[in-house]
Amino acid sequence: MINPRQIAFLALRDVHKGAYADVALDKVLQKVKLQDSDRRLVTELVYGSVRRQRTLDALIDQFGKKKAHQQPKDLRTILHLGFYQLCYQERIPASAAVNTTVQLAKENGFPGLTGFVNGMLRQYIRQTGENGEIPLQLPENPAERLGILHSFPDWIIQVWLEQLSFAEAEQLCEWMNQSPTIDLRINPLRTSIDVVEQALKSADVLVKRLPHLPQALRLISNSGAIQNLPGFREGWWVVQDSSAQLVSHLLDPQPGEVIIDACAAPGGKTTHIAELMGDKGKVWACDRTASRLRKLQENARRLNLQSIEICTGDSREFSQFTHTADRVLLDAPCSGLGTLHRHADARWRQTPETVQQLSQLQKELLSHTAKFVKAGGVLVYATCTLHPAENEAVISQFLAESPDWKIEPPSADSPIFAYSTSQGWCKVWPQRHNMDGFFLARLRKTNDSG
Ligand SMILES: C[S@@+](CC[C@H](N)C(=O)[O-])C[C@H]1O[C@@H](n2cnc3c(N)ncnc32)[C@H](O)[C@@H]1O
């Protein structure tokens, strides 16, 4: 019989050698045939152990004779699996978590250490409070405290503490450790939100509408494979988080216009723009990653959109677009600090150095793609990060260097108005708005000299 914990262990071993968590998980799941419940368990154990890695290491430090980083790599991975089940999987009885972890140690090269594994996990159980509180010894320093308790690197917590109170930063940590929700965006050129809502209801999928977003539905019950939901093949909808849906509303494209989407793939926003224009006009979908553009093409085909044209290359180098666009969308590559809940390993991959590199790239993309806009036209800058160096600093520097441009706050009747700030840009905070973290700024070119 196939043991789901062994499968999870094999995936985690790959992750600790540098593989992306989703790639490592797909690889092991493809090799075995598992029941749905076992598949879900493997997924939960892999993503959970990666996400909670810092907390799990702190437990090994506290309960082991050696620190986590001094343990043999595979043993550390096995202990992560054991502690993860004890701390975060209430459905799994503690005895089952301990016994299966001891078994994993025995079968993966540590038959002599089963007593140690057993003793360590049982000591943890003895110290767990009645309400299931994790018995962690935490430092006083606020960033380290939140970082260890909620499993984030200190530098990310520091970025949040510079913008939020301790209590709100903690709410954000908790939000980012939840499973992500799935939102749909209905394609009004093919159907209506009422029809989709009804069709999903008939398939026993519960949904709810979302404030300010006329075409959004959030799935609130387990939907199974998304491609099997009613309306997928017919192009009635795409999966797109509600905050990402705000972006094209802020751009507000009109039928017949020329729009350049400068970082377009895989096309969530390009297709939204084409829909908002009634598929009339031209949307240039530019991106430097050809494989992601192929995905965009598939999406446009499924949604039956004709107004999208693809352009492969670096948007900092296109000169053919100068002064051609009514509107430009720059949905810039970013560190993704607003979507950490969607990628278990993202918090460990980004660093302050990658943020600085991205910030530089974003500034270059913005100053170049701004040249695409006609006099009087609009540029929307968006990211799914919450780092000021990639957001506020990029816009502030651009405005300081570009007298022909001004920031244009959303109007009171716009779906984005609820997220606007006194500086004119918009910021979606997940712990306040219950959607992915996003930053958006709408800029207007005032005359033709730039
Ligand atoms: C945030 S993603 C875009 C998501 C897309 N707008 C959507 O809604 O589906 C950023 C994209 O920027 C692209 N990119 C990064 N650097 C670029 C550059 N210099 N020129 C063009 N595209 C670039 C990446 O390939 C990636 O697809």
From TrEMBL:
<dbReference type="Pfam" id="PF01029">
    <property type="entry name" value="NusB"/>
</dbReference>
<dbReference type="InterPro" id="IPR035926">
    <property type="entry name" value="NusB-like_sf"/>
</dbReference>
<feature type="binding site">
    <location>
        <position position="331"/>
    </location>
    <ligand>
        <name>S-adenosyl-L-methionine</name>
    </ligand>
</feature>
<keyword id="KW-0694">RNA-binding</keyword>
<comment type="function">
    <text>Specifically methylates the cytosine at position 967 (m5C967) of 16S rRNA.</text>
</comment>
<feature type="active site" description="Nucleophile">
    <location>
        <position position="384"/>
    </location>
</feature>
<keyword id="KW-0808">Transferase</keyword>
<dbReference type="InterPro" id="IPR054728">
    <property type="entry name" value="RsmB-like_ferredoxin"/>
</dbReference>
<dbReference type="InterPro" id="IPR029063">
    <property type="entry name" value="SAM-dependent_MTases_sf"/>
</dbReference>
<feature type="binding site">
    <location>
        <position position="287"/>
    </location>
    <ligand>
        <name>S-adenosyl-L-methionine</name>
    </ligand>
</feature>
<dbReference type="GO" id="GO:0032259">
    <property type="term" value="P:methylation"/>
</dbReference>
<dbReference type="InterPro" id="IPR006027">
    <property type="entry name" value="NusB_RsmB_TIM44"/>
</dbReference>
<dbReference type="InterPro" id="IPR049560">
    <property type="entry name" value="MeTrfase_RsmB-F_NOP2_cat"/>
</dbReference>
<feature type="binding site">
    <location>
        <position position="314"/>
    </location>
    <ligand>
        <name>S-adenosyl-L-methionine</name>
    </ligand>
</feature>
<feature type="domain" description="SAM-dependent MTase RsmB/NOP-type">
    <location>
        <begin position="172"/>
        <end position="446"/>
    </location>
</feature>
<dbReference type="InterPro" id="IPR004573">
    <property type="entry name" value="rRNA_ssu_MeTfrase_B"/>
</dbReference>
<protein>
    <recommendedName>
        <fullName>16S rRNA (cytosine(967)-C(5))-methyltransferase</fullName>
        <ecNumber>2.1.1.176</ecNumber>
    </recommendedName>
</protein>
<keyword id="KW-0949">S-adenosyl-L-methionine</keyword>
<keyword id="KW-0963">Cytoplasm</keyword>
<dbReference type="GO" id="GO:0008168">
    <property type="term" value="F:methyltransferase activity"/>
</dbReference>
<dbReference type="InterPro" id="IPR011023">
    <property type="entry name" value="Nop2p"/>
</dbReference>
<keyword id="KW-0489">Methyltransferase</keyword>
<dbReference type="InterPro" id="IPR023267">
    <property type="entry name" value="RCMT"/>
</dbReference>
<dbReference type="Pfam" id="PF01189">
    <property type="entry name" value="Methyltr_RsmB-F"/>
</dbReference>
<dbReference type="InterPro" id="IPR001678">
    <property type="entry name" value="MeTrfase_RsmB-F_NOP2_dom"/>
</dbReference>
<keyword id="KW-0698">rRNA processing</keyword>
<feature type="binding site">
    <location>
        <begin position="263"/>
        <end position="269"/>
    </location>
    <ligand>
        <name>S-adenosyl-L-methionine</name>
    </ligand>
</feature>
<comment type="similarity">
    <text>Belongs to the class I-like SAM-binding methyltransferase superfamily. RsmB/NOP family.</text>
</comment>
<dbReference type="Pfam" id="PF22458">
    <property type="entry name" value="RsmF-B_ferredox"/>
</dbReference>
